[in-house]
Write a structure and sequence with these properties.
about 85% helix; plasmid
Length: about 140
């Protein structure tokens, strides 16, 4: 009889540990995506600002290379989020954040000046993703 109790206690411990690992991985995916999107948003803003200010070709190419690297860095955490989190509100918020971040390129292609950093990022701050996440999405 006591063997069965020990077995059940061990099973509960394994489930609890597994649940904590999944929760940690989900939080990491959200945090990594928010950071990567923020880095890419900044790189795109810097690139657009340089283009509109008539910066040298070398400067623009360097900023383009940086924005390509930051965009590439968005992929891994975005995929991790989609695999680990099933909550549609979280996925929608992540997709919106990424879409708005990528849209910065269109903003400087169709204007003569870059909006302030605050305006350029108001619609898609990393907190928009985090604010949608409820405890049930992370558990």
């Amino acid at each position: 009889m006591s063997g069965r109790f020990q077995e059940r206690a061990a099973e509960r411990q394994v489930r609890a540990t597994h649940g904590e690992v999944i929760r940690r991985d989900r939080l990491e995916a959200v945090a990594a995506l928010a950071c990567a999107a923020s880095d890419h948003r900044r790189a795109m803003w810097m690139r657009g600002d340089a283009i509109l200010k008539g910066a040298s070709t070398e400067r623009i190419e360097a900023l383009r290379d940086e924005s390509h690297m930051t965009r590439s860095a968005v992929t891994r955490p975005l995929v991790a989020l989609r695999v680990l989190i099933e909550d549609q509100a979280v996925r929608t918020a992540a997709d919106r954040m990424i879409t708005l971040t990528y849209a910065i390129r269109d903003a400087y292609a169709t204007t003569t000046r870059m909006p302030s950093v605050e305006v350029a990022t108001t619609d898609s701050p990393p907190t928009c993703l985090v604010s949608v996440i409820c405890p049930s999405a992370i558990r």
